[in-house]
Amino acid sequence: MRKYQWLLAFMALAVVARWGSFFISVINHDESTYIVIADEMLRGEVYLRDLIDTKPIGIFWIYAALIKLTGGSILALRIAASCVVGLGSFGLFMAGERVTGGKNFVASGGTRVGIAAGLIYLFICSLFTYYGVSPNTEIFFNVFTIASVALAVAPRLNSRSADPAWHWPVTGFLLGLAMIIKPFAAAEALAIGLFMVWYYGRQKAWGRIITSGAMLVGAFALPLLFVYLYYQQLGMLDQLMFYTFDVSAAYPIELPWYLRLKYMGDYLLRFSPFVILGGGALVQAWRWRSREEPNNKLLPSLLEREKLQWGIYLLLQFALVTVVVLLTGKRFGHYQVQLHPVVALLAAMWWAPGTTVFPWLRRPGLRKYSFVLIFLVASMLGTAHYFAYAKKRDEPPKIAAYFKDKLGADETIFIINGFQISYHLLDKPVPTPYIHSSLLFYDHHVRAFQIDEVAEANRILNDPAVQYLVRRREDANAETPLTERLLPAFEEVDEIGDRLLVYRRKRME
User: Fold this and answer.
1) What is the pTM of this model?
2) Which secondary structure element, helix H or strand E, spans residue 33, and what is its range?
């Protein structure tokens, strides 16, 4: 198959493996936030002034573009997110092929490694709700960090590849794009920078370290500079600095070290088959790094050394990403999606030429029917998601249906603590800049963002467009100064299902 055909194949397979998650309105409230903020930006609102969240602006620009391209339906946006996963798989395919393949030299082996890396990534992104099924920033910025590794690292660990200078500015630009989606991408940027210093340092090419490093860092700064200049021309540098640095510094929480270890252990156990495959291949590469075959005194040892160097780089990237993920003290599964590319590439080493560990897995029958089995597994996974999500409550479509004919053209609602995707379904503006419900209803976020809850309640009360409130019947997190200020101005008038209460603004007498 041609390379672009692999891209289409990975995208199609990602859709097959994830289709069952396309129909529920909320998989994760982060995705809802991206969509709703993107809606507001398309209406002319400005992020960090009219709209507030913890993320850099990049993810909202991406969703604004996706809404324009797809029309904005949840189904279409989920298909687009699946294609992004497929794009990441294709990047890993290229990385695996480049590091172990080459013209006239184990080319088929390189293709096997690339296919394996892409498929492993696709499946581990499509297994668990909070580890890749829910579209989050990680699956988007992974595309850029994966492309960076495929361009700058993989070919340089293959002695049969060239070392073109243009790789470095392109790599820097890709990493800069990843950074404006989520700053956690600094881990991959540091790993690639350290690799560059090692690569040229062992050749004593000190001039290349300086020139390549300058191109890498200069291009890396371009997306960051664009964001800076965007906010400068809006006169919003103070807001940019506050939300980028002050809020980020207050965002981490204290977490005992043993819970951090448990968090990482949970990840490694979830994906232990792939961790074991990669570990076995890495151990063999270490043991065979200087082994020579009687009839060929160069290629076996050369290949094992290259695999070992590749494995060591991947372990470095894994370690740096782990540090960044653990710094926040939070144990969100989607943070660890950033580790998926490393796990996929490590596990794919098992398919590299010369690897003999776990020989009982290499059954000819499995290889013969491998593509059929892969499609069947993907189909079963997609079907399993369909039945799993069909059992979950889906309140936002009910909210949207209830208010569809009740709201005037200039009217909107305020939903207390959650269900923000309802604004997208109703095509109504949000009466607060704090879109993600946790920002207004979780104490550590209120403190980090320095939110005056009573002032925010007054903002909503002073907006005549807000005619209704919606809240859960029981919600301990919603008992805040904001709701204490809001509720006396509204009266309970109805219910939506058995969990939601509807309040209407009291009429002035």
Assistant:
1) 0.94
2) helix 29-42
